[in-house]
Amino acid sequence: MTSSRIEELKRQRQTELKKRGNQLPYAIAATAAALVIYFALVKYNMSFSYYWIIGILLGITMQRSRFCFSASFRDPIMVGSTSLLKAIIMALFISSIGFFIIQYRAYLMNPSHQLKQIPGQLHPMGIHTAIGAILFGIGMVIAGGCASGVLVRIGEGYIMQVMVLIGFLIGTTIGARHFEFWDRILISKAPIVYLPHHIGYFPALLLQLLLLVILYFIADWYDKKNNIMSTM
Fold first, then answer.
1. In whole angstroms, what separates CA 29 from the centre of its chain?
2. What is the per-residue pLDDT across 70-97, written as a single tens digit (0 to 9) for each?
3. Domain-embedded: residue 25
């Protein structure tokens, strides 16, 4: 891309920004509404007020970082960029250490614990996991984003994403209604795979961190070789 073309795009972008109305009143109104809701929640239930603040901070973080699981798998194929994929790998790396500390502490307090007593969400893994992953993958490609990406875009004013949210609500309602049926014939018959019970807590942690490090370097190598954005 030539420098003259870049300058032309900059001027076009500046013209578009000048045409936009002042967004400050909307920001003030949204901040005031958030504060009113916060103080109302403080009086009603202090825990809810914490959730409200955490939700706002997560929303701001996702919006500014453009964090989206769909984009993390789409960008390597579309433009060769793995920046979001590497961010997810780093998040898994950090959360793995955090969950290890929580679960290992629970193990030390009760070495004879059962799988259902371990802190966290441990569920059966089987063919239903693969089917669900394929359906969700197809759905988020058609929708143009994952759940977090859709919510961020709705906040940014993308009206079409509201239809995706409605689809989410309909799908989860149907899924919740028929969950017992699928659990009885398929999910409950699958095993719960928990590596620490097979190879120990520390070996399981080291194995997972090693795999994530390898994936990170592969993603970084792929980005340097295929990212078309870096050549513009």
1. 28
2. 888 888 888 888 888 898 899 899 999 9
3. yes
